[in-house]
# Entry
Amino acid sequence: MKGHSQEIAGEARRKPGRPRSKKSEEAIISATTKLLNDEGYAKLTVGKVAAHAKASKSTIYRRWPTKEHLIIEAFNRWPALTPHDKGDVLSDLLDLYRQFLRVLHRPPSNGIMPTLVAERAHNPALAAVFDPLMQMRRDPARAVFRRAIERGELARDTDTELAIDAIMGATVLRLYFTSGDLSVKSMRKYLVVVLRGLGARGY
# Structure
């Protein structure tokens, strides 16, 4: 009977630990996001994150071995785009673009993305963890083009990676270099040009 009571007591002590662990993890990610947005990449340190999250540095390092891994974990929490089937490739791409704008213009995404893009250009450690994630973030567009090929809207040998580069390139150019028109109407015109260049049916 005594052993059974000790077992129950042990379970009672262990159960609260899991929620606290999850709460601590969320606090760490939240602190990372806030510091990155407020102070920038260079000034962010694991020590500052630990202080803001009320966690120890050893707790952070057990989960994220470097500052770069921690930042990418925060970035990876941003909503992923969903490749909805709207019936045709142009509508599908425009739907992805609308989702992208919603994520981009919502704090803290609107402040952090430029910081990461600029830092990645000269920081090999960040590029090593940032680039694979960005490749994964292209998957929704890949799904849209794959579906377009299956529908017969695009040829089987369509270079979808090049098409994605063209679309992302124009978006990044307008965002960070020319202050161009980011409206859905403007992007629709650009996508029509891209689809015509790809030989898409109906364009």
Observations:
- The chain is about 70% helix and 0% strand.
